[in-house]
Amino acid sequence: MDTIRIETSGGSYPVHIGKGIRSKWRELIDNYASYSSFFIITDEAVEGHYLSSILGKEKLAYFVVPSGEESKSFEQYHKCMTALLEADLDRKSCIISLGGGVVGDLAGFAAATYMRGIDFIQMPTTLLAHDSSVGGKTGINHELGKNLIGAFHQPVAVIYDIECLRTLPEREWRSGFSEVIKHALIHDETFLNWLLDRRKAIRNYTDDELQFMIKEGINVKGAIVKEDERETGVRSYLNFGHTLGHAIEAELGYGKMTHGEAVAIGMIYALRMSEEYFQTKLRMDDLRSWFQELGLPVAVPRELNRRKLLQRMKKDKKAENKSLQFVLLKKIGTPIKVSIDDETALKLLEVSVERSV
Ligand SMILES: NC(=O)c1ccc[n+]([C@@H]2O[C@H](COP(=O)([O-])OP(=O)(O)OC[C@H]3O[C@@H](n4cnc5c(N)ncnc54)[C@H](O)[C@@H]3O)[C@@H](O)[C@H]2O)c1
C-alpha cells in the first residue's frame, strides 16, 4: 500500500492506495472511534459490486443514487439530505462516499452542508476519481452549468482500492485515463514519457503500473492543491482541457459523453491553441494518435454548434469578466493561463470538428 499525505489549509489527510484495502477501511481511519456513526453514499452500479465488502458485519446506514452524472442534481442532493436526517446523523457522524466522481462530488457536498459540515471519507472506485477524490471540490450541477453549486470541503481520508477498477466498463477506464494524461501534461514530462513508453490498452496495465500512475496523478494534484486550495492561482491549471470539455458535456447533454472523453477533446484543442499561441511544437500529432489508439475522442462532435460552444465557454465559472480564459502549455509541464479572443477560439473550434481530423 502507498500512502500520500495531502496538505491543505482545510485539512491534512492521507490517501491510501492499494489492492484489496477497502475492507480494511476501519483500520485505516486514524480517528475511527471518535465518530458516532458512519453513513455510506453510493450508486447503483457500485452498490452491486462493493457495498457488502464495506459493510462487513456492521449494519451501517446507506443511501444509493442512480448511476451517472444526472445524480449530481438538486433532486438527489435533497434525497440524500433527507436520508441523512432520517438516519439521525449528528455532527460527529462521518459520511463515506463509495463510488466515482459523481458520488464523491454529491456525497462531499452533502457532508459539507449537513449541519453546517461533517466529516467524510472518499472511497473512489473509478480511475477518474484519482482526480476528483482529492482536493476538496464538492458540488452538484445546475441546468445552467456544471458544478456551479458547491463547496470546498476536504475529506478526512481517501481509501483507494485499485481492485475496484477491474469491474469498470471500458469507457470509464478511458475517461479516467484522460485525467491521468492531463496530470502528466501539466506537470511532469517524465511521467508523460513513462506513460508513452507503455502505450497499450488501458485495461492491460498491471496492478503495479496502475498503482504507480494513480500515485503520480495524485502527487501532481496534491502539489497543486497544497499551493492553491481555493483556486486563486495555480489550481486553475488543473482545468487544462476543461474549458471546452465542460462546454461539450453541457451542450451534448450531461451523460452523453463521459467527463474524460470531453476533456480529451478539450486537451487536443488546448494543445493546438498552445502551439499557435506560443509558436511551438508540443508533439500534438503524436499525442492525438495516442488518444485515438486509446479510443479517446479527439475532435468536436460535428452536430455541436460552434457558436453555442463558444457561449458556453464564456459562461464557464472560470471565465473572467465573460472573457475566455484557457490554460495553455508553454511546453509540456509548464501551464499558463491566458485570455483568448472569441475569433481565435472560434477559428480553432472550426478546425477541431470531427471531419477535419
Ligand atoms: N471534485 C473534483 O475535483 C472533480 C474532478 C474531476 C471530475 N469531477 C467530477 O467527477 C465526475 C465524473 O466521475 P466518474 O468518471 O468517476 O463518473 P461516475 O461517478 O459517474 O462513474 C462512472 C460510471 O462507472 C460506474 N462505476 C463506478 N465505479 C465502478 C466500478 N468500480 N465498477 C463498475 N462500475 C463502476 C458508475 O456507476 C458510473 O456509471 C463528473 O461529475 C466530474 O465533474 C470532479
UniProtKB/TrEMBL annotation:
Zn(2+) binds at residues 179, 242, 259. This is 3-dehydroquinate synthase. Keywords: Amino-acid biosynthesis, Aromatic amino acid biosynthesis, Cobalt, Cytoplasm, Lyase, Metal-binding, NAD, Nucleotide-binding, Zinc. NAD(+) binds at residues 67-72, 101-105, 125-126, 137, 146, 164-167. Its cofactor is NAD(+); Co(2+); Zn(2+). Catalyzes the conversion of 3-deoxy-D-arabino-heptulosonate 7-phosphate (DAHP) to dehydroquinate (DHQ). Binds 1 divalent metal cation per subunit. Can use either Co(2+) or Zn(2+). It is found in: Cytoplasm. Gene3D superfamilies: 3.40.50.1970, Dehydroquinate synthase-like - alpha domain (1.20.1090.10). NCBIfam families: aroB. Residues 176-319 form the 3-dehydroquinate synthase C-terminal domain. Its main location: cytoplasm. SUPFAM superfamilies: Dehydroquinate synthase-like. GO terms for cellular component: cytoplasm. Belongs to the sugar phosphate cyclases superfamily. Dehydroquinate synthase family. Its EC number is 4.2.3.4. Residues 63-174 form the 3-dehydroquinate synthase N-terminal domain. It catalyses: 7-phospho-2-dehydro-3-deoxy-D-arabino-heptonate = 3-dehydroquinate + phosphate. Pathway: Metabolic intermediate biosynthesis; chorismate biosynthesis; chorismate from D-erythrose 4-phosphate and phosphoenolpyruvate: step 2/7. One of its GO terms (biological process) is chorismate biosynthetic process. One of its GO terms (molecular function) is metal ion binding. It holds the Pfam family DHQ_synthase.
